[in-house]
Every structure is written in C-alpha cells, then in structure tokens.
Write a structure and sequence with these properties.
By secondary structure, this protein is an alpha+beta fold. The protein contains 13 helices and 23 strands. The chain folds into two domains: about 5-335, BirA Bifunctional Protein, domain 2, CATH 3.30.930.10; about 345-435, Anticodon-binding domain (Rossmann fold). The chain binds adenosine-5'-triphosphate and magnesium ion.
Amino acid sequence: MRVSQYFLPLLRENPSEAQIVSHRLMLRAGMIRQSSAGIYSWLPLGWRVLSKVEQIVREEQDRAGALEILMPTIQPAELWRESGRYDDYGKEMLRITDRHDREMLYGPTNEEQVTAIFRDAVKSYRDVPKNLYHIQWKFRDEVRPRFGVMRGREFLMKDAYSFDLDKEGAKRAYNKMFFSYLRTFARMGLKAIPMQAETGPIGGDLSHEFQVLAETGESEVFCDPAWLERDILAGTVDYDGDLEPAFRDWTSLYAATSDIHDPAKCPVPADKLATARGIEVGQTFYFGSKYSKPMGAVVAGPNGEEIALEMGSYGIGVSRLVGALIEVNHDDGGIIWPEAVAPFRIGLVNLRVADEKCRAAADDLYGKLRNAGVEVLYDDRDESPGAKFAAMDLIGLPHQAIIGPRGVAAGTIEVKNRRSGAREDMPVEGFLARFAGR
Ligand code: ATP
Ligand code: MG
C-alpha cells in the first residue's frame, strides 16, 4: 500500500481526551476515531490490526475444536426473560423497541441466544459435546466508558459456549478453552496470566480472568512471579488427550485478582508475591445448568432420561486486545507492533521522492515485496525525512526499509528494527532474501 493512496489521518499533537498511552497512540496513528462516547470507527490501519487479532483468536478456537457461528447483535427481550436476566442486567443493557412495540436489546453477551439455538436443535445425548463460538460486536452501556477501545460501550468480543452432558465433560471443555486462551495471547506476544476470579453476573463456580500485566490495568492482581517464566508455545497442547494434569500444573502457580485474593490464605510469601495492575483480556466460566435449566435446554440420555446440559462460556475482548497490545508495546516514538499482529510487516521509506534513482529503486523494491506477498506500507509522499521517520515510528511497523541517495548509489538499503532501534545496511538481494524469501 502506498501512503499517498492510503487513508492514514495522523495527528501530530496528543489528543487531550486520551488519558492512557494506547488511546493516545491509536488516535494519533489514525487507527480509530470516536463516534460517540465509547463507540469508535476503525480506520484502515486499526482495522488491519483488529482483523489480525481476530484471526489469531479464530485459529486457536478452531484448533481447540470450537465451531464458528455468527449470532445477531440484536436480540429479543423474551429470551432474557426466560433466563431471568432481563431485569437483573439493569442499565448496562441497551434496550430497543421496534416498530411493532416489540422489546429488543443490543446483546451484551449471548448465553441466552445460544442456549435457545442449541435447545431447539439438539435433542439427544449423542449430539453433545459441542462448543459454538462467534466473534461479534457487543454493547454494554458502561457508566464510564474510557481509555478508548479498552472500555468501550460497543466492543468486539469472541464468545464461545460449551454444551456437555455432565460435569466431567464440562470440565474437559473448560480445559480446552483454558489452553486455547494461553496459546492465543502468547501468539500475540502477550503474557496473559489466568487468575482465579469472581464469576459475577454470569454465575457459576469456576472462572479465570486472563490478565495482561500493565501499569494502566484496571484490576489489581497478585501472582507467583514464576508465571512470568512460563511459555505455553514451548510445547504442544493435545486437545484430544486429558488436559486435566496440565491444567493442574499450570494453575498450581498462584494468581488471583483482588476480588478473590486473601493475604491470609495466599500460599506465596508476601515478599515473593508479585503485585501488579492487570488488563482483563479474557474470561472463562463454568456455570453448569444455570441457563439450560430455566430455558429447558435438555437432551434425552441413553435411557431416555432428561439431562439438563452443563455449560460454560468463554469470552475474549478482541477490540480491547488492540489497546492492551499497545499498552505493553510502545516507546516515546509510538507503537511497536509484535510481528504477529502488525498492520504491515515493513514500512518502506523513500527519503528523496524528487530523485529519479531513489524513486525507481523504491518502486522496484515495493513491487518485489508485493509480488512476494509481503505486507508493505510504502511512504512515497513528498515529505521531509524527519516527518517520514516520525510517522513510521508512530505507526510502529516492525521493520523500516529506508531508501536514500547514498544507499541507492551503493546498492544497499538501510533497515531499521523498530523495537531494538538497530540499523543495518543490507544489499538489496540480502534484504529480499530475508524479507521476501528469495
Ligand atoms: P470488565 O470486568 O473489564 O468490565 P467483564 O468481566 O464485564 O469485563 P466479560 O463479560 O468477562 O467482561 O467479557 C469478556 C471480555 O470482553 C472481557 O474479558 C474483556 O476483555 C472484554 N470486555 C468486557 N467489557 C468490555 C468493554 N466495555 N470494552 C471492551 N472490552 C470489554
Ligand atoms: Mg470478565
């Protein structure tokens, strides 16, 4: 993509409404624009990152055996009356009336909706276990929407729902999601620690909040520092095998949010315990028959007996993750994208657009990178080198390839690693071998 043809409205100044770094940088880098409080449009650069995050979430859900569906954003109030949550949910729920005076709502979550789908379709024990998920916008009329996409009113969530015959089955489903979450966040380069958590309005008795440690996190969290050494991607997860021993092993390390943490009962001595702030990027719940019973989601067992399904639900804040990623990956110059979620892998900068040779060299390289399928953003604008460097640092692409008169004369490209700041001059062929697999 050529910057001259792109829609990249960068801001030079820090927007005054943004209190935390991710919000500031997302506005400045032209990733998002606010529509109304807690509601955002995603511009091309932001949308690319959101899509990459979403795709990693999707791949790891699929890998764990969950099946993707898409449920609507608007739900009938009737469903929520069945579960008893319509009144409980209070002002966070955006309630809508259609032209026939039917009560509708913009879904804050989908337990009721998916339970109704499952109840109507599934009648026999042979049809479970199943785990259905979707990636869909949610609306919660938060009292204090703030921090940009981190606490929005409209936000993108992945929510999965498991259906099993019994508690053991439900625990197997829970374990699969637990490990798929560890893998999902690790693939984005995030250390998200599963913490024992309160179940809140969803209900149930087993829950983990996955917390990314960051100074601006809204939760106070406590954990065994050994968590920070753990790496899920170092091994493989066998989703067909028994994950319980591995689950016990991982959760044997203490980690809890302040809601649950009790210094008197904490197994880690106070001087060893890590205390930090956390951003909740996901939460898993096991809640048994809390929805299946009132909503009549039952199947016939092997002997014809009626079995209320055992359920769990598993959420990931897809849009919040974009903010969380920036909170832990930035410097004074701007964002530093991890490769896995970077909107483009390479930022190609032509320092001297007016110079015929520079332009030919940059155009040529751009063409070769594109042909090799490399995601490249090519700054072909007639701007000062300083402005171009600042823009590239701000938007945070992992690698910058800089073309100027001296390099063109020598047949080299200056390559800068955004994270380390390291620069090296590479011959064009070497550069292509490294980045375009030639
Ligand atoms: P929080 O405690 O942060 O309000 P929650 O516990 O109410 O979140 P869940 O119902 O667990 O949220 O939703 C699943 C995930 O959706 C959360 O872990 C979080 O990452 C994300 N999420 C929840 N509320 C918001 C929001 N207002 N804006 C952006 N993401 C959100
Ligand atoms: Mg939660």
